[in-house]
Design brief:
Helix content is 10%, strand content 42%. It is mostly beta strands. The strands form 2 sheets. Strands 1, 2, 3, 4, 6, 7, 8, 9 and 11 form a 9-stranded antiparallel sheet that branches. The chain has a two-stranded antiparallel sheet with strand order 5-10. The protein is globular, with a radius of gyration of 16 Å.
Length: 165
């Protein structure tokens, strides 16, 4: 079952989401908007394998905001959010780009926020508009939908991204 605004509000009061800018603006009928704290350009290649023993994340460099604005040329970027989520073991979260972003020729790409995950979120932003995209720091760009599981996961997320700020 996807949670609605009042259920999300109650869970936020218990720590589901912290670090947000405006509860009233970010809380949506069926989710919660995530905002862009930092944006990074990829500077090299990454590598991934089955066991993660040879996993290597690519180097990045921060995009500089001037007067709170940055112009992004077509390409792919990494976004780090203002918000920190702490997902209980009986909930997962799924994200989609905000429709305003789609209407501008850009979109976000996400993994699943696993039951038990806690930390600052990161995801990809893809700009396909040939003229690029101007984005203001703290802009709302993606929406998390929270899904209640039939029962709590036996084991919560325990990967390397747990509790990163």
């Amino acid at each position: 079952m996807i949670l609605h605004d009042e259920e999300i509000r109650k869970l936020i009061a218990k720590g589901l989401v912290t670090g947000y800018i405006s509860l009233e603006k970010q809380l949506q009928p069926n989710g919660f908007d995530l905002t862009a704290r930092e944006i990074f350009r990829f500077k090299g290649a990454g590598s991934i394998d089955f066991s993660n023993k040879e996993r290597k994340f690519p180097e990045t460099e921060p995009v500089v905001f001037t007067d709170m604005w940055a112009h992004l040329n077509p390409g792919i970027y990494k976004v780090k959010t203002n918000e920190i989520v702490s997902i209980p073991r009986d909930i997962i979260a799924l994200a989609q780009p905000r429709s305003s972003l789609l209407r501008m020729g850009a979109f976000t790409v996400h993994g699943i926020w696993d039951a038990g995950f806690s930390g600052r979120s990161e995801f990809a932003l893809v700009v396909q508009n040939p003229a690029g995209l101007s984005i203001k720091q703290n802009a709302r760009i993606a929406q998390l939908a929270f899904v209640r599981l039939p029962s709590p996961a036996s084991k919560g997320y325990s990967g390397i991204h747990q509790n990163l700020g």
